[in-house]
Specification:
Layout lengths: L13 H9 L20 H29 L4 H28 L12 H34 L7 H25 L22 H27 L6 H10 L2 H20 L4 H24 L3 H10 L1 H8 L26 H10 L20 H4 L28 E2 L2 E2 L1
Antiparallel strand pairs: 1-2
Amino acid sequence: MSSINIGNFASLSPEEQAKVLSGPALQPPDGVTSDFDHPANGTIPSHIALAIFLALITVSLCGRIYVRFFTKQLFIGDYLLIMIYATNTVTFAYSYRIFSSPGAFVHQWDVRMSALTSFLWNVWITSNTQLFSLAFVKVVILLEWIRIFVPKGARNFVFWASHALIWVNILFCIAIVVAYNVACTPHQYIWNKFISGNCDRANTGTENLMISVISLSTDVLAFLIPQKAIWKLQMPTNKKTQFSYIFAAGILAIVAASARLAMAVIRSQSRDFTYNNTSLMLCGLAEMTCAFLVVCIPALPKAFKSMKASKPISSMCSWKRPRTPGERYTTNKWPRSSLYQPRSNRYAFAEVEEQGLYPPPARFHSDSSVDLSVQEHLGSGILRTTHFETREEYFPNVTRTEYPRQYGLNGIV
């Protein structure tokens, strides 16, 4: 934004001011004519992308919160997610305004100078809210790693690595927000280029590059932390693979962060701010969506299962299947054996959400006894195994009368 410079606008005559305001916000390249009325744009695809991102975030968050309230296991991350969602809604609202006017992927020479102030104001709002939301949703993800992979009271690799990244995200967010908001003198010059001022305190292009680099780095590290913990567990390889799939949305977040870094490099080398800002915003929103999916996906199977088990939905499902003429209506079913436990990825999701994933404490190795206090860390699972042996002996010379209590009137009891 610092590249946009109108000069001493107040010193111009009213006629000259009117001419500047009706002119392009950037001088078009040679051979190109500004088109203010019907410029080439990507507004409709961008609006569709916004709707998809917001729908995915809303559905995943509602599923997680529903499970938390249903099981009465509210976590500090749930309250943070609600706050982040509220802030993120502001980001989506102002992004919609930007994509509506002047439009998405509209070249700056196709935008009138009079529309510049409102555009920069919307960009300033979205930049602050998106930075806050993205930083703190990663904090929630890391807190979730601690809840899932760290037993109560333990201090392992996941604990220290997650806490380090948490503070990196928080401190970096504070530093960038402060630098971004004190870059220009006076402060209003950030969005109002028609007043006298400058942005010599900080280079916004460099700030965007730093944000993209740190965001990509933290995405990669946040993805690797649970993978390291999962593959160190003592369980079959196919089980580890199932648990790894749960966090596969982190790969999409890394892809979005990489694309955002590429767009930040292009934006820093171009003066076409209105066009390049669209791709930067979309990449940031895609990364935000993937971050929500990472933290909310483990709870979704249980949410659908709970909804299906609810009385209104169960009654609707009971009317769904027509009965044959000779079939009697009954709600009784032959009880399925408790030993029958079908396994699939959705059960793996539930295990991660409810029980956590971490090896038992080192003291849990005895064959004859077990400290039951570890049950609060392990949740449900195998606490002790017992080995039985059976032995049959045959004595050919022994008669029935020698062991009368072993036989009844008609033979063996």
